[in-house]
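Hi everyone,

Forwarding the result from last night's run.
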Amino acid sequence: MKEEFFAKAFILRKGRFAVLFRDRMDAGEQLAEAIGLLNVKNVIILSLPRGGVPLGKIIAKKQGAPLDIILAKKIGHPTNPEYAIGAIAEGGAPILGDGYVEKLHAQWVEKEIPFIREEMARKRALYRESLKDSTLKDKNVVIVDDGIATGLTMFAAIKAVKEAGPKSVSVAVPVIPKTIYEQLKQTVDKVYAVKAPDDFLGGVGAYYASFPQLKDEQVKEILKS
């Protein structure tokens, strides 16, 4: 059945094999297998909402570890919000892209950050009832997302997590560009991935057969279950 699925995916992509996962559940199972059983104590899984939560749930269950979230959000370009010029995570300082950002868009970033922090605080309050209080101090933290494209939000999350004093920080994602994979290896203790292609297709969704946007209520249900 799995072979048939991938064969169909190959044909749909007109000869260019792209689809690796049926959906986030399939990606979570494959990623959990790639991680294996961690031979360390005091593990905590941190998912990036919304898309990373289903995968984090699967991994946390297989590791017998608690699940929590780390909120991070990109800082959009002033004329094109979809184009990220930086990112920020709760509890951490912002990170910016190339040096020109600080010179050309410093005022925009300064004004935008309070709005982003306010939105993250709102999200944290929304999810809080589905979470248990946890600390990252001296923990072996694994940060999970459903994929990485530019890596800005993940690097922002890593920065915030490290400021909390964990014992170790690892990253686990199903798919990631090879260049970002190599950068992360220099930043965290371990990077787990199912696939790190050299010719990344530009968007994480290209590697999924089904990649719908999750709603906050769905995230809350997954965290509660």
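The longest strand covers residues 80-89.

Cheers,
N.
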